[in-house]
């Protein structure tokens, strides 16, 4: 794209939007187009710090006029940096983080840049929404791609709790999408990602939950196979109120350790009995255990979310643990290349499995395990960069024979695997994309299946 076109585009933006406009030659531009993953070095042409829906509409209209692609930056925690499309304009929503709670209708409305932490801070102590495990993550992107977390069993995925959304479309119009208005768009944004428009605000269902019993338990790597086998047995009969997460982290002695994190939101005696099945296992070290507000039970992994550290992530979905997949995970943990890396495994059972596969754009509704293989390191050399990436890739390949098709689309960049995840749903998603964004203006994750032929 020629420089004069970009210069004119930026000039027009500055004349028509209230928020600040930044071009690639501006001194502060480099710091603004950074996300938590320090390995990202994207090169958009412009960034607009939008102040409201009117700003978003002006950016979209001008981008359409000049033929410039658009991406959206919310919380900034997409590891692949897909908020920054090459040569395009970034609609930055980080100034749009207002949260308004409607207790009578059990709904919370938030702007598109609000993080999970913003939502939890804006809710009463006895009220929750479905979240992941890190407060820094933006709710909009988290929801549109799926939304795994400790409360999935009781309340479903985050996308199952989306009630309504205000979306700015490619023609600059602003529409309300819900079950009755723009129902096809509402279906698509629940699992199909952010490629249909800009999610300016969303209404999310809230739930009354005064406290949870949360525990974090560590095991030496030598006991991991036995512990994971028992974990699967507990999960096979898990009530909806039980949220389980497991995986591997590096211990303080530089050796990998298995962790099991549990959230229980039911009867206390039943919760103690379930937890006892884990803490009684050989080698179990209870790091923390107690009742608290749900918001206070989060944050265990916050120290690992370090802005600027380099990351590379692979993902797989397992039907369940078996001897082979457990062996591959333990071997991968033993070969971890960085003290900051880890393997995080989320369970999916309960209410989310009782949703029809075609009710939303998220078709995987059978009970399963989501594996995140997170390689994280401090930048040193290209050789070591490759070593850390190769560790994650090798473990992903070793898990492949035991995995379901595709993977978690919020973490995928491989077009073939995105296609595999969606299956027949991909055809309907393309139809909705063509209807609302026929020129493929929006280029955010998981965008690969929407590219023009």
TrEMBL record:
SUPFAM superfamilies xrefs: FAD-binding/transporter-associated domain-like (SSF56176)
Required cofactor names: FAD
Entry keywords, A to Z: FAD, Flavoprotein, Oxidoreductase
Pfam families on file: BBE, FAD_binding_4
Residue span(s) of domain FAD-binding PCMH-type: 40-209
Family (UniProt): Belongs to the oxygen-dependent FAD-linked oxidoreductase family.
The name this protein goes by in its record: FAD/FMN-containing dehydrogenase
């Amino acid at each position: 794209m020629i420089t004069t076109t970009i210069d004119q585009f930026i000039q027009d933006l500055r004349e028509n939007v209230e928020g600040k406009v930044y071009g690639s030659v501006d001194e502060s531009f480099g710091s603004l187009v950074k996300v938590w993953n320090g390995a990202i070095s994207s090169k958009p042409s412009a960034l607009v710090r939008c102040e409201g829906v009117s700003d978003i509409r002006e950016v979209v209209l001008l981008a359409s006029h000049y033929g410039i692609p658009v991406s959206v930056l919310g919380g900034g925690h997409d590891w692949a940096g897909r908020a920054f499309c090459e040569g395009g304009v970034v609609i930055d929503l980080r100034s749009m983080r207002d949260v308004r709670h409607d207790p009578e209708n059990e709904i919370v409305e938030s702007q598109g840049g609000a993080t999970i932490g913003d939502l939890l801070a804006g809710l009463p102590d006895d009220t929750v929404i479905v979240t992941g495990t890190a407060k820094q993550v933006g709710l909009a992107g988290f929801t549109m791609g799926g939304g795994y977390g400790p409360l999935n069993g009781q309340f479903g995925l985050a996308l199952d709790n989306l009630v309504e959304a205000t979306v700015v479309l490619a023609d600059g119009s602003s529409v309300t999408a819900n079950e009755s208005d723009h129902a096809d768009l509402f279906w698509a944004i629940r699992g199909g990602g952010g490629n249909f428009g800009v999610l300016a605000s969303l209404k999310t269902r809230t739930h009354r939950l005064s406290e949870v019993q949360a525990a974090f338990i560590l095991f030496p790597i030598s006991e991991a196979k036995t512990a994971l086998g028992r974990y699967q047995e507990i999960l096979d009969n898990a009530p909806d109120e039980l949220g389980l997460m497991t995986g591997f982290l590096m211990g303080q002695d530089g050796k990998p350790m298995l962790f099991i994190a549990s959230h229980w939101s039911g009867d206390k005696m039943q919760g103690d009995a379930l937890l006892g099945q884990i803490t009684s296992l050989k080698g179990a070290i209870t790091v923390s255990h107690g009742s608290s507000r749900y918001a206070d039970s989060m944050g265990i992994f916050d120290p690992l979310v370090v802005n600027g550290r380099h990351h590379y992530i692979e993902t797989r979905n397992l039907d369940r643990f078996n001897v082979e997949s457990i062996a591959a995970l333990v071997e991968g943990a033993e070969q971890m290349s960085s003290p900051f890396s880890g393997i995080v495994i989320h369970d999916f059972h309960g209410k989310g499995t009782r949703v029809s596969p075609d009710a939303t754009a998220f078709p995987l509704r059978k009970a399963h395990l989501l594996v995140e293989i997170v390689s994280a390191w401090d930048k040193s050399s290209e050789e070591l960069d490759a070593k850390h990436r190769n560790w994650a890739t090798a473990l992903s390949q070793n898990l492949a024979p035991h995995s379901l098709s595709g993977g978690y689309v919020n973490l995928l960049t491989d077009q073939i695997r995105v296609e595999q995840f969606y299956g027949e749903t991909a055809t309907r998603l393309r139809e909705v994309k063509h209807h609302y964004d026929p020129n493929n203006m929006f280029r955010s994750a998981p965008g690969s299946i929407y590219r023009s032929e």
